[in-house]
Amino acid sequence: MTDVTDGVLHTLFHSDQGGHEQVVLCQDRASGLKAVIAIHSTALGPALGGTRFYPYASEEEAVADALNLARGMSYKNAMAGLDHGGGKAVIIGDPEKIKTEQLLLAYGRFVASLGGRYVTACDVGTYVADMDVVARECRWTTGRSPEKGGAGDSSVLTAYGVYQGMRASAQHLWGDPSLRGRRIGIAGVGKVGHHLVEHLVAERAEVFVTDVRDEAVRRITEQHRDVVAVKDTEELIRVDGLDIYAPCALGGALDDDSVPALTARIVCGAANNQLAHPGVEKDLADRGILYAPDYVVNAGGVIQVADELHGFDFERCKAKAAKIYDTTLTIFARAKTDGIPPAAAADRIAEQRMAEARRH
């Protein structure tokens, strides 16, 4: 990555890395800020995507992550029916060690300098309280607290959307959207996963959970005595008679090792970038496993933060998130018609919407 000077934006074009419109490198030496803002597309409207705060091993790794995540947001926003393109920002460093008010304010100034082309929100390593700070310097900030005019925690609607995706998957595969009695395994019961458990328990599904944090699992099993804790993801995906597997933690959960071991007939979870590499979607299809594309079913959160720009209304957002059910069924139908995996069908529909917007 080219070094940058205080307060200077360097704009790069990466046509060979997904056709991104703009990549901005940000540095503020006074606060220690080093960040990357990637704008993949503004065909449908201002780019919208969260801010990831993470200790990347290198600046090149940070740029690559920003590019991949921004592209994913273009597809997610298109499939969610939002009038937004895709963007993402990453702040380089350990948030536990370097996150300060001064750094967040400096970051807010960089986002503001883009004049509304990029709208930011929370992501890994950033929270509602952080967005409240960023918003002091940048009006194109979402994911703020209700006290500051925002929607607060977006994990509630993210989980609700995943739940709707599960119901649609059940309808497509078994002819009935009910999850009652279905055996469902959730890997990761943090912000989103624990809300998802609530929906499934309410519908009387048989729920199995695992998480790298013992306290997260303990909290769930203390609240819901019928939920079964398993040791790790490797054990979870092998649970006998599992109907649905829900990856709700880190990306890359579906790879050359996990896919052959899956006992579930459906994969539908909240994690981003679940497919470890191209071709995994075909491996799932070849095994007869129905995959609900991650960026489609986990769009409840972005639906919520986008609504902040118009004056947040929870019921309006919930109604939009409920449509994830219909969108998921549409994708499965397109996949069947075109003879392709659902992930490819979702990409085609999203690309079609973006292409049509460019022509107008």
UniProtKB/TrEMBL annotation:
Superkingdom as given in the UniProt entry: Bacteria
NAD found in the keyword field: yes
Compartments where found: Cytoplasm
Pathway assigned to this chain's UniProt record: Amino-acid degradation; L-valine degradation
Keywords: Branched-chain amino acid catabolism, NAD, Oxidoreductase
Keyword check for NAD: yes
EC number of the protein: 1.4.1.23
Cited SUPFAM superfamilies: Aminoacid dehydrogenase-like, N-terminal domain (SSF53223), NAD(P)-binding Rossmann-fold domains (SSF51735)
Residue stretches making up the Glutamate/phenylalanine/leucine/valine/L-tryptophan dehydrogenase C-terminal domain: 152-359
Top-tier EC class: oxidoreductase
Catalytic activity: L-valine + NAD(+) + H2O = 3-methyl-2-oxobutanoate + NH4(+) + NADH + H(+)
Family according to the record: Belongs to the Glu/Leu/Phe/Val dehydrogenases family.
Record text on subunit structure and interactions: Homodimer.
Name of the protein: Valine dehydrogenase
Naturally occurring in which organism (per UniProt): Streptomyces ureilyticus
